[in-house]
Amino acid sequence: MILIVDDDIAVRTSLTLLLKGAGHEVMTASNANQAFEQVQTQKPELVILDLNFSIETSGDEGMSLLQQLRAYDSILPIILITGWASIDLAVKGMKLGANDFIHKPWNNDYVLQSIATLLQLNGSKKSTAKTRAALDKKYRFQQIIGEDASLLNILEVIGRVAATNASVLITGESGTGKELIAEAIHENSTRSGKPFVKVNLGGISTSLFESEMFGHVRGAFTDARFDRMGRFEMAHKGTIFLDEIGDLEASSQVKLLRVLQDRTYEVLGSSRTKTVDARVVCATNKNLNEMVQMGAFREDLLYRINLVTIHLPALNERKGDIPLLVNFFINNLKEIYNRPKLTVAPSAMRWLQQLPLPGNIRQLKNLVERTVLISDKDELSVDDFQAQIHLSPLKNNHIKLPGVGTITLDQMEAEMVKQAMNFHKNRITKAAASLGITRNALYRRLEKYQIPFNETED
Predict the structure, then answer these.
(1) Are 179 and 283 in contact (CB under 8 A)?
(2) Residue 420 CB: number of other CB atoms within 10 A?
(3) Is 295 left (phi over 0), alpha (psi -120 to 50) or beta?
(4) pLDDT of 397 strictly over 50
C-alpha cells in the first residue's frame, strides 16, 4: 500500500492512476493530520509527500509532517514531490530523512522506478547471508577477494542493492577496488547483459564534458566532422560508472544533475531531446560532504547520486585479507608468465601483512607483479619484496607543511607538480602516479600553472 499526500486532487488522481496501473494499492490524504493517522492505522509501505500541500509555499507543513513520520517510523520509505523552483526544499527534506525526491512535472517511468527500488531495498533488510560461501552461492563476486567481516557486510549490501535501480555512491581511498565493486553491482543486476560504461570524470575537461557525455552532431563545433555517440547513450539499458565524480567542475555538475533528475538530455548541436535509461554508479576518494560545506560540490547532486552509499575500507583495516589477495595475484601470474611453481614464503607473507601500503590493493598488486618479474626464484622471500618496495612510496605521517599564510594552495600545488616532474624526468605517467592523480589531471595542472616541460617516454 502506498500513501499519496497532496492537497491537489489532480496530483492525487494522476499518481493514483499511475500507481494502480503498475499494480500498487493506493490510498490518499489531503492534509498532515489525515496522513499521519493513516500511517499509524494502515501501515503503508511507502509515502509520497508533497512538501507544499496547502496554500503556503514555504514547505514548513510538509517538513513538519516528514519529521513526524520519520520519528514514528525510522525506515518507512518517503519520496518528496517538489518543483525545480523549490529544489532547496527537497535537499532540506533529504537531510531530515527522506529517501528520494521527484520534481513536477514528473517522469512516470522514474517515479515507478524509484518506488520499486525503495520497496525492494526496504524489504531486503532482513537478509541473513553472512559467510563468504553463502554470498558466493547467491551472487557473482568472483573478482572480489577477501573474507574480512567489513568486506562481507559490503558484499551483502551489494547483493541487495544490485537487484534494484538505486543510484550508488562508492567511497574510499585510491586503490581500494571501487571499480570492481561497481562492476559487481552491474554483474548482479538485471542489466548484466547490457553495457557497463566507465567514465573517468577527472580526465574530462569542462569544454568537452557535453560532447563526451551526451554526444555531438556533425558541425556542432570546430573539428566536429562526424556525429558522436555520448557515454549516456552508450549506457542505455545498462550501467554508467562515473569515477572521480569529486573532480567534476561546477558547470558540469549542473548538466549532470539535470540528466540524472529528468533522465533526458540533448545532443550537442541538436535541439532534439533524448531519454536515457541507465543505472548510475559513482565513485570518489574525496569527502563530498566536506566539499558541499566548502561550496565545491552541489548538495542536490550529492543527494541524487547517493541513495545508497558504500564505503570501502583501506587495506590496512583488513590485513587478514592480504594473503588471500597475494595468492590470487600469484595464481594469475603463474599463467601469465608460465611459472607454475611460483609461491610466496610464509615469512614473506607475514612481512607483507605488516606493510602500511597506502596505495591499498593496487599498490600490493604492483609490488607482487614487479617482484615476480625481477626475481627468478620459485619461492619469493622477504628480500625479494624488499628489493622492490622502494618503488612503492610509504605513507609519511610527519609531513612538514609551510606556515599558514606563507604560501597559497595554488603555489603549493604548482611546486609539488614541478618537483614531481623534475624527480621523474618529465615522465608523465610516473609523475602523475606519485602525485596521486591521473595523467589528464596532471596535464591540466601543467597548463594551469604554465609549467614548461618536454615529455619523456614512460
Answers:
(1) yes
(2) 21
(3) left
(4) no
